[in-house]
Amino acid sequence: MDNKEKYSELIKSKALAFGFQSCGISKADFLEEEAPRLEKWLKNNFHGEMRYMENHFDKRLDPRLLVEGSKSVISLSYNYFPEELQNNPDFKLAKYAYGEDYHDVIKDKLRTLVAELQDEIGEFAFRVFVDSAPVLEKAWAKKSGIGWVGKNSNLITKKNGSFYFLAEIICDLELIQDFEVTDHCGSCTKCIDACPTKAIVSDKIIDGSKCISYATIELKDHIPDFFKDKMEDWMFGCDICQDVCPWNRFSAPTLEEKFRPNSEIKNFTKQEWKDITQEIFSSVFKKSAVKRTKFSGLKRNLDFLSE
């Protein structure tokens, strides 16, 4: 067994030991197929006010511009599907936001994982990414064989559905590449049919400016009237297109304690959400990804839903 094979096997076994669901490897190269798609998506203004998507166009398509000398992109997935849902879903949170902020939890795991790898392999150049840099995560996960991109543009696997976070280690190790898997959406259009704002404009293409997650998280100004009576009580994010996906019948509860909801998130009544204060917000969402929308943003969302 040469080093490429040995290191690839070691990385995958370590990833599983750290609780990652899947781990796949692809060559760090220019994403030729994605370039025209990203350009067209931006030209159609499907990113709405997410102007940061216009930045670092080249870096989004070529990981070698993010990590000098990089040769491999290691893609990983981590399950966040909750064992328990909100008991009073009058105002709903996306399931990924039930627990602690995934950016911090998963990045800590990745750094420890890499430290252990370097103890065995020796020093190598790397950077870890968890949804916080110009990395086209789904494209790399697809190339590495973790899953396929569904019609709702989420990465889907036959074994686990789509309720998981994606992360990457971009490094200068020469590794064995994995192969893409086939698409298993078939003629199903459940996600397209279920979206109340018709944000899924065609197979795998999302008009982000019509997405409920965009309106409740990314949008910093007032919520447009377009969303009136279409939000289906989502106050932060949205899971509709995942909830209806047949592959998510295979989703199993996460084993990660930090992704489990606290009692307030599980049990808050409609009135308690309406009456939330800055103090309560800071306490309930102390380590949560919901901090991104700030108290003012969550209050705006709640007020919009209550009008």
UniProtKB/TrEMBL annotation:
Keywords, in A-Z order: 4Fe-4S, Cobalamin, Cobalt, Cytoplasm, Iron, Iron-sulfur, Metal-binding, Oxidoreductase, Queuosine biosynthesis, tRNA processing
Its job: Catalyzes the conversion of epoxyqueuosine (oQ) to queuosine (Q), which is a hypermodified base found in the wobble positions of tRNA(Asp), tRNA(Asn), tRNA(His) and tRNA(Tyr).
Cofactor binding mode and count: Binds 2 [4Fe-4S] clusters per monomer.
Tagged with keyword Disulfide bond: no
Binding site for [4Fe-4S] cluster 2: C195, C211, C238, C241
Protein localization: Cytoplasm
Protein name, as recorded: Epoxyqueuosine reductase
EC number(s) from the headed UniProt entry: 1.17.99.6
Residues holding tRNA: K220
GO biological process, one term: tRNA queuosine(34) biosynthetic process
Binding site for cob(II)alamin: R60, D131, N152, L155, L166, S213, C238, D239
Family: Belongs to the QueG family.
Lineage: Bacteria, Pseudomonadati, Bacteroidota, Flavobacteriia, Flavobacteriales
Domain 4Fe-4S ferredoxin-type, chain residue ranges per copy: 175-205
Pfam families: Fer4_16, QueG_DUF1730
Residues forming coiled coils: none
Pathway named in the protein's UniProt entry: tRNA modification; tRNA-queuosine biosynthesis
Active-site residue numbers: D131
GO molecular function annotation: 4 iron, 4 sulfur cluster binding; cobalamin binding; epoxyqueuosine reductase activity; metal ion binding
PROSITE patterns: 4FE4S_FER_1, 4FE4S_FER_2
